[in-house]
Amino acid sequence: MRTHRGLLTYCSNVDFGESWADVRRTLEGPIATVRRRVSPTGRLGIGVRLSSRVLRELLAPGIRAELEFVLAREQMYIFKIDAKDERPDWLEHARLAHTCRAGDLLATLVPEGLVGTISTVPGALGDRAHIRGARDTAASRLLAAAGHLADVRARTGRRIVISIEPEPGGMLEGAFDTVSFFRDHVFRGEALRAARVDERTARSHIGVRLIAAGALATLEREGITVTRQTAEAA
Question: Structure pTM?
């Protein structure tokens, strides 16, 4: 639904469950109730939290068709997938596979002209954030995911952005950590060459959730894509 201030969207941190059946009940229940109350005459963009198991289920054409049917009937569309579970993190290959599946799915669901986002853990949390070489490992997997999302964009025309969400106790906690991580690890020439990804692709498909209004200028000055909670035009 479009308002005078932009697109009206809704992101739910509710647990959507561990199966497609659980997700369907949530979409048809509390999420549909929200849509009817705040956007009775128009479509509502939503952000959903999906587990690895649900993502695998939804890649099956029959299950995905069920999802598309529910979204159409309830007048909703998905622009964001929340994949912020602590584990697996970006030190594990499973996080890369999970993100690629989320990108494949989201590209079939986000409306033309909008950017899809995948919220993700800030590299790693707790003691794992300080393992020797952790930042290089996380950056290399993020770049591999960016390469996959570039291929998705070439096939579908949909741009999907990985939205890293800094948080206390994470590898990235604030603007300073974030800028240094992107500058010294993600956008570093050696890392880009190893991943066979150019810098433009990395900047287009790897971003960060807006931490605080005061950090916006710093992030944009560094050329880091900044994502927000609302749907944005491509």
Answer: 0.90
